[in-house]
Design goal:
mainly alpha, flat
């Protein structure tokens, strides 16, 4: 009996996790933008796109860094992840403190889309990570 088809069957390791999470994030942003348009109009859609898109970009960059490290310098994957996370938090803090949102930004839609993207991203990451086959025994 065949199992369910797998997204990105030729991608392995962190690359597959990156592709699955990014796809889930993009779909979530598109749904949030569509919902914003239907419920509250173009400003809500733009706000959802900005909040969800910004969250997606930050999440993508940190996971892309892990994917790169895993392929080129596996011993640096965890330290680079920690550095990337710290930089991501610092940049987000600077943006929140120094960049004044325009009148067009509906903070509810931006925050809502950002939170939903994080939740969907994390769920997709956990599900795709759980399907990774990582050896816990050293190669002898």
């Amino acid at each position: 009996m065949m199992g369910a088809p797998t997204l990105f069957p030729n991608a392995t390791g962190w690359r597959r996790v990156l592709l699955v999470t990014t796809t889930a994030g993009v779909v979530t942003v598109l749904i949030a933008v569509g919902l914003g348009t239907l419920v509250s109009g173009s400003l809500a859609a733009a706000s959802a796109g900005a909040g969800g898109g910004g969250t997606l970009a930050f999440s993508f960059l940190s996971l892309a860094l892990i994917d790169w490290a895993d392929r080129h310098a596996p011993h640096l994957a965890i330290p680079l992840f920690m550095i990337g996370f710290g930089i991501k938090v610092a940049v987000l803090a600077v943006v929140v403190l120094l960049v004044r949102p325009g009148d067009w930004l509906d903070s509810g839609w931006a925050l809502g889309a950002g939170v939903v993207v994080v939740l969907v991203w994390q769920a997709a990451e956990i599900l795709s990570f759980s399907q990774m086959r990582i050896s816990v025994q050293p190669d002898d």
